């Protein structure tokens, strides 16, 4: 985990999130015909995304664009998926079976999708020139697995990292385009529905929940793929990670609305944009938490290591003879044991703090700042609740504590255990907040569902309350 590693983590994570969001936002508004053409198109899109994900390799491979095809394969998959998504929107403009708003949506989204496609194409060209323009024999996989003691990969960013930087810019440019369109181009009077097809927010809630489960499942998988070792410290770290993932799953679905009326996208444009951005930060943080748990467990896979002084690290596993190559089949990392553990602890603590912080901000976005501020006051005298203020203070202290924990503790087992205790404390404090802060009087309606007075108020909310329409695509 270095500055170079952070760049490649962000450059791989946000484009993949963009691919997921593209499909989610499309499926929440449009339905294609169930024919051979559209099935084939769907397979090609999914295959392109799979190609990109397949080539997400360790930084040592992706950063070595002259010898490894990983970077080119990743950029190629992103480019193909992005172009195919654009074709889907162009198809809307040409053959949609719906009103003029569907055609306008298709054309506008196809043009807007170019904001990321051009960057992905540039990244693909740059990576292709680096790989196919090199005179090397491209045998890096064999060379690294053989444990070349003279190969120590760099840890700093330079011009050869241009492709991953372009991928990151491409994902951010699409995000910025969408936010600018919603915040500055959509009118406040609801007339935006004349030239766009509203999303099915209930569908978005469901797919967002699926995405979150995938991120949490990645955390569990990261723990399971590490070799099992004997010892109490390994077991404590492993089960701390498992229970923490369960608690994070509980906190997420406990704090997020399950119906469109309570979602940020239904409240206002600003709230919807804030939620969309925070959800991406939240997702990336969950991935980092899962990866850091895996790195914490890796500390127990080997009982010791010896630096021979010639750039080659001799690792002594708890079983079998010493291995004359580096961990996970890669070249030497260049980090001492103390430095490595400190870096892992930094990533774990910062990512876990970001998970908590972004989760809290998403909860605020669903109700708005003013509504949440009103909840902090007592019903009788409208005075600020002292108990509530104390709970908020404890949550802030807990957030600051976990964010700075790596400055005091870097050993894997204590870090994992304290992280588990922190997640437990988060659950307790959130339950206390739910009990202390009122959420409006809940009552039954004619449809048999529960609603609060807050959701019944006809205030200046963004008029995005019409039922979502599904525009069908004529088979071609």
The whole-angstrom Rg is 25 Å
Number of helices: 16
- On the 0-100 scale, what is the average pLDDT? 79
Low-confidence segments, given as residue ranges, are: 140-151, 303-332, 440-470
- Say how many strands there are: 7
- What spatial order of strands do you see in the largest sheet? 1-7-2
Q: Tell me what portion of residues adopts beta-strand conformation.
A: 5-15%
The assigned structural class equals: mainly alpha
Task: Indicate the percent of residues in helices.
Answer: 55-70%
Mass-distribution shape? globular
Give the helices and strands as they follow along the chain: HEHHHEHHHHHHHEEHHHHEEHE
Cα(first) to Cα(last) distance is 49 Å
Largest sheet: 3 strands, mixed
Pfam families: LtrA (PF06772)
Transmembrane segments: 6-22, 69-90, 111-132, 162-187, 208-226, 232-251, 272-293, 384-406
Region (Disordered): 439-465
InterPro entries: Low_temperature_requirement_A
List the helices and strands and how they pair.
Blueprint: H1 3-27, E1 30-32, H2 36-54, H3 59-62, H4 70-95, E2 96-97, H5 100-132, H6 140-145, H7 162-185, H8 201-224, H9 232-255, H10 264-267, H11 269-298, E3 302-307, E4 313-317, H12 337-367, H13 369-375, H14 386-404, H15 412-436, E5 442-444, E6 450-452, H16 453-456, E7 471-473
Parallel strand pairs: 1-7
Antiparallel strand pairs: 2-7, 3-4, 5-6
Pfam families: LtrA
Region (Disordered): 439-465
Transmembrane segments: 6-22, 69-90, 111-132, 162-187, 208-226, 232-251, 272-293, 384-406
């Amino acid at each position: 985990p270095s500055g170079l590693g952070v760049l490649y983590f962000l450059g791989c994570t946000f484009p993949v999130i963009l691919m997921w969001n593209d499909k989610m936002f499309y499926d929440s508004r449009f339905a294609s015909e169930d024919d051979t053409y559209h099935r084939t198109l769907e397979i090609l899109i999914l295959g392109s995304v799979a190609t990109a994900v397949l080539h997400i390799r360790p930084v040592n491979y992706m950063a070595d664009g002259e010898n490894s095809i990983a970077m080119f394969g990743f950029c190629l998959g992103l480019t193909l998926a992005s172009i195919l998504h654009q074709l889907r929107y162009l198809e809307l403009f040409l053959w949609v079976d719906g009103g003029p708003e569907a055609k306008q949506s298709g054309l506008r989204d196809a043009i807007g999708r170019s904001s990321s496609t051009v960057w992905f194409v540039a990244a693909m060209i740059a990576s292709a020139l680096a790989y196919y323009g090199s005179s090397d024999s491209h045998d890096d996989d064999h060379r690294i697995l053989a444990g070349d003691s003279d190969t120590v990969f760099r840890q700093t960013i330079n011009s050869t990292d241009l492709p991953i930087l372009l991928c990151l810019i491409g994902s951010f440019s699409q995000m910025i385009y969408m936010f600018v369109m919603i915040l500055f181009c959509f009118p406040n009077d609801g007339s935006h529905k004349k030239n766009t097809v509203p999303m099915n927010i209930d569908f978005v809630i469901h797919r967002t929940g699926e995405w979150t489960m995938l991120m949490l499942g990645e955390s569990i998988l990261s723990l399971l793929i590490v070799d099992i070792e004997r010892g109490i410290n390994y077991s404590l770290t492993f089960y701390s990670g498992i229970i923490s993932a369960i608690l994070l799953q509980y906190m997420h679905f406990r704090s997020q609305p399950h119906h469109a009326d309570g979602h940020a996208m239904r409240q206002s444009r600003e709230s919807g944009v804030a939620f969309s951005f925070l959800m991406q930060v939240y997702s990336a943080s969950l991935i980092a938490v899962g990866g850091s748990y895996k790195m914490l467990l890796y500390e127990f896979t080997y009982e010791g290591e010896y630096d021979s002084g010639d750039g080659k690290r001799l690792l002594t596993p708890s079983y079998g003879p010493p291995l004359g190559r580096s961990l996970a089949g890669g070249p030497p990392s260049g980090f001492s044991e103390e430095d490595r553990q400190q870096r892992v602890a930094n990533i774990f603590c910062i990512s876990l703090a970001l998970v908590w912080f972004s989760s809290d901000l998403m909860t605020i976005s669903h109700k708005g700042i003013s509504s949440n501020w009103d909840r902090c006051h007592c019903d009788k005298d409208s005075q600020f609740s002292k108990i509530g203020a104390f709970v908020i203070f404890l949550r802030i202290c807990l957030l600051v504590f976990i964010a700075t924990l790596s400055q005091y503790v870097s050993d894997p087992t204590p870090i994992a255990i304290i992280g588990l205790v922190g997640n437990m404390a988060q659950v307790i404090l959130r339950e206390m907040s739910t009990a202390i802060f009122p959420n409006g009087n809940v009552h039954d309606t004619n449809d048999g569902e529960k609603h609060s007075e807050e959701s019944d108020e006809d205030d200046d909310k963004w008029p995005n309350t019409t039922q979502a329409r599904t525009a069908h695509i004529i088979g071609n």
